[in-house]
Amino acid sequence: MKKIININFHSRVIPIEESAYEILKQYIESLRKYFANEEGRDEIISDIENRFAELFSDRLKKDTTCITDDDVNATIASMGRPEDFDQEEIPTNTASDQNSNQSQSTSQQTQQAQTYHYSSGRGRLYRNADDKIIGGVCSGLANYFGIDPVVLRIVFVLLFGALFWVYFLLWIVVPSQSLQSHVTKRLYRSADDKIIAGVCGGLSSYFNIDVWIPRLIFVLPLIIVLISGTFHAMWWNWDFGFAPRIISSSLGSTLFISYIILWIAVPVATTSAEKLEMRGERVDLNSIRNTVKEDMENLRTKAEKWGNEFKETAQQFGNRAKEFGQTASGQAKNFTTEAGYAAKRSSNGFFHVIGVLIKAFFLFVGSMIAIALFFTLLSLIFAGVGLMPLKNFLLDGFWENFYAWGVLVLFLGIPVVAFLTWIIRRIMRVRSQSRFLGFTFGTLWVLGLICLICLVASIGTDFKSYRIVSDEIPMTQPAHDRLIVKVSEPSIQFEGFWWIHSDANGWDINDDSLKLSNVKIRVQKSDDAFYHILKIRTSFGRNRKNAEDRAKQLEYDANFKDSVLDIGSGFSINPQNKFRGQQIIMEIQVPENKKIRFDRSVLGKLNPFHVRFYNRSRWNDDDVDIDFERDEYFDWDTNVDYIMNKSGNLESTLKKDSEDDNQNDKTEKNDGYRYKKNNDTITSKKNKDSIKSKARKEQTEETPKNTTEKQTKAIGNNDESEHAFSPVYSLAELI
Amino acid sequence: MRKGILEFCILSIIKRGEAYPSDIVEEMKAANLNIFEGTLYPLLTRLKNANMLTYRWVESNSGPPRKYFSLTEKGNEFYKELEATWNELANAVNALAHKTTGLAEQENQ
Question: Touching check for B35 and chain A: CB below 8 Å?
């Protein structure tokens, strides 16, 4: 007794025995595999199917009511099996090199013969043509060593830098073969075995480990927090307290983010076929039947507890599940075979090779970016904890904090999450869900962008006004007409946090102060016969008053004693004051023909920076150019006496003769300052400074005539707005 | 069987007029050349893709419409080439096979 099904075979209705249908299907599948590299594969198969349909119709017209196993087998026998095709053609391969046309098709045949010729795969290393993401190297290796390809894939992705060439070499050297031994495994979230979202359950079945292992890994940081928390409660200043804190904060957040990303990226296994794929069992009818049976049995045992009524419904449900499972398996099979052919066909022909290469390239670049982003995120989180105090010095008010979080989470975080989602899906062969995810990511990212714009705008308003507060430091005139400038304080250094030691120079931060070495020395000719020292504090602000307040709150030490001016290596800003581009300028006015000397200790301790806000175009106020650069202000030799000359330039007492010509030249052109090295950019900067101070001191000096382009522009801008060139610390440098 | 020869055979059958694949198989079987139909279809498709063959659909009363193949200009040229090659080969083989004098005798001459 056999079940007969009706199939629509090339628009003919053909009654066929179910088993015969299976044979036919398998045969067509084998043809598909055999002709996978053939250009007109679909046409060939369609022709053959057509012929089958014709033969079956003939058969049905005669005496039978349906197509039986024997009919199918007979037809297949006349049509020939792929193995027969090989036997017919292989012996001809060797001698057909003369005719180009022939040799081409022959090589195709050889290739087909190779790919079709299945082997267990053990013993020789092949790339796996059936299960591949790029070149099938990983799954081939995995097959060779008898391990899970996913493990190798993860190793290759993690050690991408080192193993990139290995992969490429293997890709080129190792031949491709269809290794049937593989089992397609996909990462799903487990619906049956879940606590939060089933991520751990899915991972455990994917990696074939017990479910408690991933769970423990994800929960570990939490446990450490709890334990260390208890310890913290017991001893207030427990020295080892921060070691767990590191682990819990950095590792914990990483794992937390990983869990969330997996949650987003990985779909739940709901159908029987998906459950099988999750466990890595081969998806075919029998295995699905088994799973469905399992499901049914589970349901039955449950149902029995509740009674017979429920049992019936459960069975019905089971039947429905079975049907559903079967259709799903059909789909799954179609999908995998289609994907397989696409991959196989892509190895055919030069352009396909290029296609694969491009695909691989993008995949590699993509994964590289993803990994980079991931580590950036990690380091951001990591550094973020240490630099958390910084935000107190930058962000003013609730909204700025809000925007900053928006930028961090949405603008920076979302692309990382999206990229990782993509990579995980590629590697784990997760089947994609809806496009909804992409839209969500996009929307959130745009929100983050809006936050960024708001944040910049909000902080930008605090840079509208620029004020300077200038105080003269009381001093006695130095002996021997020589003033010595030194910085006895050690340079400001960021010590790092926890066990991380940082080399960052020029700034330091802790919970209640931000220290900066944005200090600049400016030397000018004194109006009278005395030395004068001015401490100029500058700051930006929302308005003049605000800027002035900020400037006044700067704490900076500069003492004069025994002809030595000892200035501090930096100033500190308190969290209430916020960082708004504050800078200290030490202006030393040297009388003509008197000397100044810089102590070696000045070197490397002061790090002034420029940030410039200026409108490049006159008609469009929105076109603001922000520019920051290191202020190469310090261009004097240390431990050398300089003399203030008539025109307000410092002359070295050492190389006076050799510099003379050059200096005369420059003096004519440039009535500003002149230093030992007459570097254009330096001079131009000095000029800018000088212009500012001129304006302030109402000195009359000629505007430099021969200036660089940059300088002209700068001066033009300077005319436009009073505070166009105020030196400001760059935020970027801080971070 | 050497593939060039198979193609030659098929083309020579089609050359005589439009042909249906199973007819071709029958024809070859009659000539004592046994091939599988499955081998024929890819060959025909390849030749068709190489513009050697063209086909038209013909409705049949016993099943789906059939593809009838015929030769194109290019196919004709290719057939001539194949024919020339075949004749060359056949002549060469024949010449060798029908030689009666031994190698030693040839040297002596």
Answer: yes
